Amino acid sequence: MVGFLVCRGKMASPSKKAKKTSCCNMENIPIITKVFNDPIHGHMELHPLLIEIIDTPQFQRLRLIKQLGGVYSVYPGASHNRFEHSIGVGYLAGKLAEALRSRQPELNINDRDVRCVQIAGLCHDLGHGPFSHLYDGMFLPKALTKKEEEMRRNRKLRKEEKLEEWKHEKGSCDMLDHLLKENNLKPVMEKYGLKPKDVTFIKEMIAGPLQESKSKKWPYKGRPEKKSFLYEIVSNKRNGVDVDKFDYLARDSSYLGIKNNFDFRRFMQFARVCEVDGRKTICTRDKEEGHMYDLFYTRHCLHKRACQHRVSHIIQEMIAEAFLKADGHIQIEGSQGSAGSEGTIGFQGSRGLFTLSTAFKNMEAYTKLTDNVFEEILKSSRPELQEAREILQNIVSRKIYKFVGETKPKTIKDWKNLKLEKNWKKTLAQPLPNEEEDNLKQEDFEIKVIEMDYGMEDKNPVEHMHFYSKYEPDVAKPMSRENASRIGTTIYSEQLIRVFCKKTDEQSVEAARQHFKQWLEKEPNLLGPEGN
Q1: d(CA 308, CA 313)
Q2: Coil, strand or helix: which one is 161?
């Protein structure tokens, strides 16, 4: 990704008529854009305000975080990072906003709106931790469970109580605030016409409403309800059709070598804002129904073939397990006086030291936490990191947990219940009828429940879209059953239960396979309607 400068001249002094909508009230500000040569989108020209954000340590950190985490351990092409994806999303966000503005001037999309949408796209993934979703999707839940158990033993947490989960969207908003403060960018934003409430608007586009609103009608503060469609560009909570998905489907497919049947450029050509149930929303042409199924099917294929690939998935689980064993032994220095609430893991007084599982509570510490922690553990000689180091050494030596078998059950709603997993492992470890000695223990098994869907659990996301016709471009409706394609699926989600053996010798693995068969015989509810 190579950048070069383009001078767009100086901003002219706005006329009296234009002053109301102009995004900048300063005269003679040179607009020096930068062009990035991207393998996916070609030459991307970005506004200087976006360049100011990109050229900060907090954003440059994304160069050190793999877009697909541990998938790189299986797919040698999956070496791309959150950095280029974020720039791509910022670019596409501006393109979609500009397309709507030129097609429908009556929407009154102004330069401030476009710039905020671009910044939201650019900064939407600032909160990702090491190996992207591995951090907040695998490691932190393990650390949270461990903390809850410890607090219950010490009677600091009741049995029915749970600690609040943390997601990277929250981290993106916190990191954006930190980025703007540390680099003194708020005056720069003001120079280009943005106002204080625009920061709220940007964060709402990333993470949704920042506070619970008493008014159920319109929960956002950054923009009024008449501009509701702007909230669907970066992170669409209505149906998942957004530029974040456009970029990662194109980028991930390219680097993985998996075909992408969805053309986001075609979607932008047909995108139009229509009023639906009293609220303006982004819609597409009725003839594009099949194309929208291509979007969600491609997403499903990427998850099934790459993100949930059985080898890459278990490698990521091993990394998360290593991080858990290293947690508390790796100290990351953060800002002073940010001790957090009671129960903060690893915080040590006023020095501002944080661990792997608490760094997200302090953005100065979190800025230093990247994929490099893998190498830090691997190359360490400290005895307290020995267990974590051995797990990572097994990964780089390809001594990974062995796949035993998988089953497609009927839907298991409470699969996250730890007691259920313990009972499964207990049944799995029961001796075989002809087994002379009990060679396999509960701790020798790893059970993973995989959920795959079209992005809305068991719902059909296309049914949550609205389509307009050639003859009524301002009237949008859901696709009726009569007009919808009759070729398709009626099931939009599935679960897989995969079992792995931590012992890697052939005798143990073969015994584990027999244990797996015995387990399914004792747990027939784990078989699908047609068996497996």
Answers
A1: 6
A2: coil
